[in-house]
Amino acid sequence: ALRQGSDLEKAFATVALVYNNNADSKGKLSRAETKSLLQTQFWHFIQGQENKPKYQEIISDLDEEPENKTDFEDFMMILVMLTLMSDLLQEIKNVKTSK
């Protein structure tokens, strides 16, 4: 559907596709599934973040409320928070691309 889309559109479409492929029939993930998906699909961004208080807060929230489900909007917010605190983000900012 996005063959002609921009790189950013394709990136968000990929996130939506990965989320939907793992979500239940109501379009939600259990907290454990959310944590697992982040650890397997977002590993390079969260690597080395384990000692940061904000990371620990995010992960402990996933552990402490197992009965709650994560919807796509909440999942995207978690991705944004983890991206902003990631050491990898600084490396990405330092990369210059030619246009």
Record keyword descriptors for this entry:
mainly alpha, Recoverin, domain 1, two-stranded antiparallel sheet, 6 helices, 4% strand
Q: Given the C-alpha coordinates, what overall shape results?
A: flat
Mean pLDDT: 88
Q: What is the tally of helical segments?
A: 6
| Secondary-structure content class | mainly alpha
What's the multimeric state? single chain
Provide the succession of SSEs. HEHHHEHH
- Helical content (DSSP H or I, runs of 4+): 55-70%
Count of all domains: 1
Instruction: Report the CATH topology name.
Output: Recoverin, domain 1
The name of the CATH superfamily reads EF-hand
Strand content: under 5%
Q: Can you tell me the CATH class?
A: Mainly Alpha
**What distance separates the N and C termini?**
25 Å
| Integer-rounded radius of gyration | 15 Å
Topology, pairings included?
Layout: H1 7-22, E1 29-30, H2 31-41, H3 43-46, H4 53-64, E2 69-70, H5 72-85, H6 87-93
Antiparallel strand pairs: 1-2
What would you say this structure looks like, in words?
This protein is mainly alpha-helical and 99 residues long. It has one domain (7-98): Recoverin, domain 1 (Orthogonal Bundle). 65% of the residues lie in helices and 4% in strands. It contains six helices and two strands, in the order αβαααβαα. It has helices spanning 7-22, 31-41, 43-46, 53-64, 72-85, 87-93, and strands at residues 29-30, 69-70. A two-stranded antiparallel sheet has the order 1-2. It starts with 6 loop residues before the first helix and ends in a 6-residue tail after the last helix.
